[in-house]
Structure formats: structure tokens, C-alpha cells
Amino acid sequence: MHLKNPFKRKATFQMTFRPAYTSVKEKKKRPLFLRIMIWTLLAILVLGTSGFFGLAFYANRDQIQASGKPLDGSAMTLSVKARSALVIDANTGQVLGQKNPDQQIGIASQSKMLTAYAILQGIDNGDYQWTTPVTISKSSDWSEKDTAMYAHLDIHAGQTLTIKELFTAMFTTSANDASLALADFAKKKSETQQEFLERWSKKLGLKDTVWYNAAGQVNDDAFDYQVKSAKKTAENKATPTDLAMLAYQIIKDYPDVKGYYEKRGLVYSPNGDETATKIKLTEGGKFDQEIKGQLNNPKNLTIEGLKTGSTPKSGGGLTGLVKDQDGHEFITVVSGAGKYTDSKERYQVTLDAVNQVLDNYRNQTVEAGQSLAGQKVTKNAWAKGGQVQLITKEKRTYWLKKSAKGSVTFAKVKRYNSQSLSDDDVVVSVAPNLKSSYLSGVSSSEKNVPLTNKEMVEQLDDNGFRKNWLQFYQ
């Protein structure tokens, strides 16, 4: 028997009504040609915008282009009667002539240039003043030593001289006691004199040097300053390149040192007592009286300094500063020029080296305030009108071999978006197209020609910059 479930809901009759009108329209695809046209227009818009700004970026990038073929200004090999020699332009560091420039040599009293630079830096930094008194110690009292063997002052332990007096004595008479006393005064309490010299050598970037004492004495002749761990024959050493770098830094940072060689007499007063003033002939005075007239000097070169030095092993040496009749200055280094007791030969070899350079090179000088070829008008989006005129800010002289044809050309600045629009600031420096070498410590700004604005230019705000940046002219 089949019984029905009494709780099951009975099925109901359902009807579905579709309205005769609805507001929802059926979605229809656009025609293919219309879709292609829309996407094509969008692509053109994107590519056009990207192209426009890409072109703007390309046209307004910093543009410095090399110009012309490099001319030969490479260093010549010097043929002089010395073991080593070097001639460089004193203002740019361009190496002009060389002979064994990287051969390490004994430098003797030329070592005193390093102490001189350290003292000048201390004056600059405010660590002491020219008038600061320095007490002569028992170790730096060389007053009883043979003056024919060891240059020194007539000053004794316990007495004082000012830094100025000691510096002048060290630089003009090569006084050993003055150099030792200054190095002791300037060094850190925790370091030896040798460590003091090594620290400053490293700071100046001298690459191949050895140091023992500030006077430049052979270790066995340094007395209380002898380095016990070193051989008795040990001596301060450097390459001609190192000495040239040291001289270059001194002259660049402290050009007044050139005046020291003009002094013909050293005047100093122990303890500041003017009634006990002493006078000593300088190296410049001795050169004038005893050597100058004996030299063969057909081009009338002027020797302006800097520092002599010689040892029995290294022979006569001189780190010099020489000026020609047109005012060009050269830093020179010679070593092994005659016997160490000879005073004349080192000067003659120095003149011979510079004469050889002048016989084989011609110079091209760019004066300050000059408009270089190709630099007449430069685009600059920061400037009112979008253009500036660049001129040279400083004088530069370049040397090229006489066999090289034509003149030195320079990199051309087409655009440089600098915010420095004053006529005092260096906007950019351009390199000469010259095959040449320079001292390793010389920066590109010293080798190249610095350019500045011809006149003060009104600087635009960001809106003005963007407006100029979007203009493609010139």
C-alpha cells in the first residue's frame, strides 16, 4: 500500500511574463574599422607625446663635443749631463721634457720643501702664526757643527726664533737646524719626525718616497735624529716626478714662496733681541755673486729658485723654478748633475734642459676673457632667452711640438644647463685637443680652460626653465 507524505508541499503553477518594453539595450560590438581607428589615434598620441619629449630631452641634454684632431704636445726626451731631469709647465703641470723621471734618487736638502709645505698649511689652518716663537731644543742645536759640512744658524738650545725666521732660514739658506726645529714643532706629539714626513708625503700624493729626517741628512749624519732601525747610509729619496709634484703644490697653493729666492741676506734675532741681530748670505745671494755670471744662458732665462740638494751618492741636485723672457714659468728637477760639491753644474744643466724644451716647442696661450671658436652662443634653459655667451675665465698656456701643424682646438659646448649664471662662476671647463701628459696630481680643472658667462644672466624659475626646455632652436 502507498501512503503519501502529509508534509510535502503541493506543486504550484508558475508563469513567466516577458515585458513588452525594457530600458536595457543589448550590448553590441563596435565595428572593426572604428576600433582600429581609435587604437591608431591613441597610439599616435602616445608615440607623438613620447617623441616630442624625447626630442626635447635629446635637444636639451648637456652637449660637449670634441673638436679637431689632437696635436702633438707629448714630452720630449732630454739630452743633458745629469742622471735624471724633468721640465714641466709650472701653471698647468704639462710635462715637456724628461730623463729618467721615475728613477728614485737621494734628495738631500730638497727634503725641506715638504716641511715648508706642512708649515704653510699650519699657518693657513690657524694652528700657529708667523710670529709664534719656537724654542731650539738640544737636538736641533747644531751651532757647534762644521758649517762647511752642515748648514746651520748661530743659535743655541733654549733660544727662540719665530716661525717666520726659521722658515726663511730653511728656505733661503738651507739651515738644517731651522728645518729640524720646525718639524719638531709642527709634528704631533705621538709621532716621530720620520712619521711626520711620511704623513705629509702621503697627503700630497707623492708615490715613491722614503723619509728619515727633515734636514735631508744621510742617516749617519743626522745625529740625534738618526733612525736607529735604518742603515747608516739611509737617506731621504724621491723620484724627479715626486719632487716636481711637491714643488707644483707649493707654488700653486702658496705662490709667495717665489719671492724667497730674491732675498740676498737672511736677518734673524735670537729671542727677539734686535741688538743681537745676525745676518747670513742666502743661496740666492750666493748664486748672484758666485755662479750666475759663469753660466751659458743664451735665452736669458731667469732662475727664481727653489731648492738645492746634494749627497755624495746622488751628486748635485736642484728643484728649480725658471722663467723665460715671455714670462712662462717652468718647474725643473735635475739630479746627478756634477759632483755633490759642485754648485755651478746643477744650474747649468737646469738651463740646458729648459733651452731644449724651448727649441722644440711652441706655445699657444688662451687669455682670460677670450671667446673660443665655437663657443659664441650656448643654449641654456635656465637663462632668460634660453642662451648664454661663454668666455674664458682664466689664462692657460699649452705647449705643442714645433713639428705639429695648426693650432690647438677645444671641446665645443653646444648646451650646458647650468644654474650657475653669474659672470664670476666657472660654468664648465673644456679640454684642449692635445696629445700630452701631466703630473698625476693635476686636476682636470687646472689642465682645461674654464669658461664663465660673459655677463650676469637672469636666472629663470622652474616655469621659465620648462618653457625654454621645450624650445628646439639653434
Automatic annotation (TrEMBL):
The GO terms describing molecular function are: carboxypeptidase activity
Q: Where are the transmembrane segments?
A: 32-59
Q: Which domain of life is it from?
A: Bacteria
**Xref: SUPFAM superfamilies:** beta-lactamase/transpeptidase-like
The record ties this protein, via InterPro entries, to: Beta-lactam/transpept-like (IPR012338), Beta-lactam_class-A (IPR000871), Peptidase_S11 (IPR018044), Peptidase_S11_N (IPR001967)
Q: Which UniProt keywords apply?
A: Carboxypeptidase, Cell shape, Cell wall biogenesis/degradation, Hydrolase, Membrane, Peptidoglycan synthesis, Protease, Signal, Transmembrane, Transmembrane helix
Query: What are the Peptidase S11 D-alanyl-D-alanine carboxypeptidase A N-terminal domain coordinates in residue numbering?
Result: 78-337
* Family that this chain belongs to: Belongs to the peptidase S11 family.
Name used for this protein in its record: D-alanyl-D-alanine carboxypeptidase
User: Which organism does this sequence originate in?
Assistant: Fructobacillus parabroussonetiae
Q: Please name the taxonomic classification of the source.
A: Bacteria, Bacillati, Bacillota, Bacilli, Lactobacillales
